[in-house]
Amino acid sequence: MPLAIAALGFLFLGLFLLYPLFNVFSASVLDAEGEKFTFANYLKVLGRPFYRAAVTNTLTIGVIATITTTLISVPFAFALARLPVPGKAVILALAAMPLVLPSFVSAYAIVLLLGRAGIVTQWLNSWGIGFGSIYGAGGIVLVYTLTLYPYVLLPTMAGFRAVDVSVEEAAQSLGSSPRRTLWTVTLPIVIPSILAGGLLVFIETLENFGVPFVLAEDMPIFAVEAFKLFIGETAPNPSSAGVLGVLLILTTAAVLLIQRRYLSARRFATGTRAAPPILKVGLGLRIAAAVYCWTVVLLALVPFFAIVVLSFMEFRGPVLHPNFSLDNFRILFDRSMRPLINTLLFATLAAMAVTLVGVPIAYVVTRVRSTLATVLDVVATLPFAIAGTVLAIGFVVSFNSGWLILTGGPLIMVLAYTVRKVPFAVRSSSAILHQIDPSLEEASISLGRSPLQTFARILVPLMLGGILSGFVLTWVTVASELSATVVLYSGPWRTLTVVMFQALESGGGGVATAAASTLIVVTLLPIALLYRLVRRYELS
Amino acid sequence: MTGIVIEGAARSFGSVRAVDGVDLTVGDGEFFTLLGPSGCGKTTLLRMIAGFCELDAGEIRFGARRIHQLPAHTRDIGMVFQNYAVFPNLTVAGNVAYGLKARKVAGAELAKRVDEALALVQLAGYGERWPHQLSGGQLQRVAIARALVIRPQVLLFDEPLSNLDARLRVSMRAEIRELQKSLGITAIYVTHDQEEAMSVSDRIALMQSGKLEQVGAPADIYRNPASRFAAEFMGTTNLLSVGALRPEALRLAADAPAGWPRLAGVLVRAEMLGPITRLDVRLSDGTLVRAALLDDPGRSMIAGDTVTFAYDPARLTVLP
């Protein structure tokens, strides 16, 4: 059975991941007609200062955003793990929200608040106070910091909690002060978790399309320029977009490789653990920690809150008037309900497909020890390193002609979403499978259930909670997917994100805010339901 | 009920020969133990019988039936695992009923057999409990009931007691032995604990590096080890130039018949363990000899004393 699963997994990922990527690569090394092999495209693209700037801008912004998120998140994580902060459960729930809310919505809210015609900007100007432009690198880094910090916060907090208390006690019994112990023992143990989170942030910044699209203005950014090149390219072979795509993939791959090499040498597993105690600290520090945690968590959510409020106000073109109005929603939904329906439909289909593909692959990866399983693991993780824009370009190039034509329909979008989210399903399912002892399966088999029955009767019930959360997370992130969607949508198959994207391009602020706040509701509703479900399940 | 025949069983993992040509016959109703240090191949051999590990060569038969190519779920085996492997998503009764349902047993018959099996392991009335409400010992009883209730041809135990505390281990092993004998099911038991092996087994196969080192009744292997490895693995052994001698074969010269050979040396350490006292004595040639004497209130010895032992030459094992 594992062999059959592996074969199907390879077939799916081969056709809808490796083949499109191969076509992106070959587009980058063929001439405009798509006939002759050449490296001229690389020289052409990299020879232009504009695209070289795109490379440096993207990397610079990525590095700065990684540093700022880390600086914000590590003290935050320490406070949550080790200090007496009131309302920890609520803080945690709120802190996870930016992970599922669309970051370009946050970016757009920043424009509405702090942009040239922004509400806050105008209010400050009326007092004679001005501040630098929010457009360009500064604004992008700000939005990345506010939306990506949970990537560092969550693993770092888990890291702080996993430090075996006896290690700290050993250090103190050897004469190390609590402060010195923190710097010399606790932090070094947690550093791999911090780095793993920081890496996620960096890769997200490389791949992100929406935030720079809203905020970069004239500043060239990798993912945006790849998209513009692809849309604008008229020759039969999209060679320049291919070049940017390949460079983007190579950059991410290099970062991942460096991290793998670094982390493989530093795995500090501390033995059986007693959860480290909450530290006793003075009142001043306690207040400071509480204020800090609550400020960060709320600040990150202010843009989303603002969008919801603004979507109920009157817009004339892009200009905002402070009157309550339902016009934005009326315009959005009068035009057509299709974008909303498409969003819900695609998210559901993709979440189902991701579960069906990801869970069996996770089973093979965790339970079979062979080179085949390792290769499958690597291939199934690969989409994580591929920007949505690049994958989508590969899809268009691959399925625009020939024996399998998918462009122009909805299926190509669902397939692209599925491939993009497979790594998350595989990761989350294999995390659960690692905790399920294989002897449970062997017990079931030796009691007379075939491997397939065993999977259905023992593994699926045990994995159900994880599969369900994976499903909801996929659903939610697909609903707000932008970077692959803008390349792949066509005609009637627009989604809410496309509506917002188009409204932004044409300056229709009202529709954009209405679409954005609908998107926020669509994202948060399933999460809230899941949360209640899990709570009830845990209580029973 | 069935005897088990293993012929030329072999399996390699990479360059390691985990099981290296094992021939073994286990009698009908016998309690047979595979004993050896970790990595000796005992668990691999057990998993071959269970069907979780394929053979590179050789065959396994239950009675006249060749089973080594059957899928594991059709072999009709009851297996008890080291970590219990009790299904956390099913109640105690659900766990015990699991194999019966796979055999299409239903209704009153199902309930009756589940109750009988639970009573057999002294868990009557525990059917509606959930696994997380039970102790380790109780979990292992559930696992045993679950394996017994299907009335398997063969029972397999994979270090079933190693996760329990020392006292419970001793009482559980007696229970397992009694259950197996009263039901008469052929059992194969894997352990690395020689005392446990000696206590439960009709016969023991001592394994090392994928091969059988010695097969025999517990007392036979203990008293007549076939090799230095067997002698040392089965308990403390004094390896003298003349042969191997168990610590309890030594007596103080004063208490021994005159004709017995003597060994004199200086007491290095005396260890009072309650019923017995252990003595480490260094002989004049430098050899360290370990002796175990029953406690005697009239005796007092301290390190540095000169001690003379004597032994029955019949209890000396000459190793090849």
Question: Tags for this entry?
Answer:
heterodimer; A: 540 residues; mainly alpha; MetI-like fold; 2 domains; two-stranded antiparallel ribbon; 75% helix; B: 320 residues; Rossmann fold; OB fold (Dihydrolipoamide Acetyltransferase, E2P); six-stranded mixed β-sheet; five-stranded antiparallel β-sheet; 8 helices; 32% strand
Total domains of chain B: 2
What is the CA-based Rg of chain B, rounded?
Answer: 23 Å
Number of E strands of chain A: 2
What radius of gyration of chain A results from the CA coordinates? 24 Å
Q: What is the beta-strand fraction of chain A?
A: under 5%
Shape descriptor of chain A = globular
The CATH H-level superfamily of the largest domain in chain B is P-loop containing nucleotide triphosphate hydrolases
Measured as a percent range, the helix fraction of chain B is 25-40%
Note down, in words, how this protein is organized.
The complex is a heterodimer of chains A (540) and B (320). Chain A is mainly α and 540 residues long. Helix content of chain A is 75%, strand content 2%. Chain A contains 23 helices and 2 strands. A two-stranded antiparallel sheet of chain A has the order 1-2. In chain A, a hairpin with a 2-residue loop joins strand 1 (313-316) and strand 2. In chain A, helix 1 (2-28) crosses helix 17, helix 11 runs antiparallel to helix 12 and helix 18 packs across helix 20. The longest helix of chain A has 34 residues, at 49-82. Chain B has helices at residues 42-50, 92-102, 107-120, 136-148, 166-183, 194-200, 218-223, 228-233, and strands at residues 4-13, 16-26, 31-35, 57-62, 65-66, 77-80, 154-158, 186-191, 203-208, 211-216, 238-240, 243-245, 250-252, 262-272, 276-283, 288-294, 306-311. Chain B has a 6-stranded mixed beta sheet with strand order 6-7-8-3-9-10, with helices on both faces. A 5-stranded antiparallel beta sheet of chain B has the order 13-17-14-15-16, with no helix packed on it. Chain B has a 4-stranded antiparallel beta sheet with strand order 2-1-4-5, with helices on one face. In chain B, helix 2 (92-102) packs across helix 3 (107-120). Chain B is globular and about 75 Å long. In chain B, 38% of the residues are buried. Chain A binds chain B through residues 437, 439-440, 442-451, 453-454, 458, 461-462, and chain B through 50-52, 71-79, 81-83, 85-89, 98-99, 102-103, 143, 146-147, 150, 156.
